[in-house]
Design goal:
The protein is of the alpha+beta class. Helix content is about 40%, strand content about 25%. The strands form four sheets. Strands 3, 4, 5, 6, 7 and 8 form a six-stranded antiparallel beta sheet that branches. A six-stranded mixed beta sheet has the order 10-11-12-15-16-19, sandwiched between helices.
Amino acid sequence: MKAFFEKIRQQSGGSAGTIILTALVTFAVTLAAVLIAFNIRYGKLISTVEKYNPIYEAISLVEKQFVGEVDSEAVSEGAVDGIIDSLGDRWSYYIFTDGVDSYSDSINNSYVGVGLYVTKAEGEYISVQSVNPQGGAFKAGIEAGDLIAEVDGRNIAKLSLSEARALIVGPEDSTVDLTVYKSDGSVKELTVVRQAISTVGVEGELLDGGIGCVTISNFNNGVSGAFKETMDKLLAEGAQGFIFDVRFNNGGKLSELLDMLDYLLPEVRIFSSVSSGGDERVYNSDAACVELPMVVLVNDCSFSAAEFFAAALQEYEWATVVGQKTSGKGWSQTTHYLSDGSAVVLSTGAYYTPKGRSLIGVGVTPDISALLTNEDYYNLYLGNLDRGADAQFQAAKDTLKHAMAG
């Protein structure tokens, strides 16, 4: 401060009054400049906080004056859920605390359970649609078509599906007792062990005529490695062409998608993304590739990475796309874990095909359209549609045969 006044004294000629006046003017100008700079930099932040004040005011009002019991955790989760829902973005969502473990299991292609895919109508028993051969249910003898009537002695007819599932799940290596009505009319009491189950989303099979069929159910952790292993195996067995089935594939991780496209395509641009801050990233493949006829099988429930997988191969005429127009998702999401253990999945970037196209609202249009009846569509979703009755698969097979012959 002393140095400040000394500088003013030198500039003003030295009188006390002049020094004080000059100092006050200089201070006022400096303060004004600081305030202007602060407002320029932080004014938007202040304005934003003011906009959100009603949220805190409402929470405070409820906690102080609501006559009933207040569940603070429920209030907090409800507020966050409402904020994310207000964005109007179907791809951004809030994961409540009790759902985070299941979410983590799904993106890691693993979970602890008995290995059943089930449905349940109100007032009815659980209907087993399919059984994972890795799970305890398969080992205990449960089959598709069986009905589960009781869980640990409790009749589940009046329970919702989520309530019944909550009784079946539990810690790894623990057991659950199930009363099962078999399709032959018998009733069995089965003790099932809950186990960690891997659900790597790739299955491959070599069909007659050298057709390699690769079903990709997601692009989550570990899929690219399983995909390359499956491809190498089918190629070693003599595959001369491939059908990639990504129907009902809800996407997954970008890194898995890029690794798979790099395996298939030559040295080309395979993908680009733009962050919410405007930063663009371009991804390219190397020269190694698979040069054989290919078909990608899609439907209206092929999402995100599944769509960009089909789009990249289609744009380079590396594969023919068969089926229905895809869903049209073109934003990427990141998962943010909050302090209470819940999480927000938020759209934070845009994805583009190799030729710079956004798929938002337009999806991928197949080169060859093929539809299923409503009944066949539902059975395909449940995994119960035989390939001989699958009109889309037959169209893909015919397309690939033609390409292989040509």
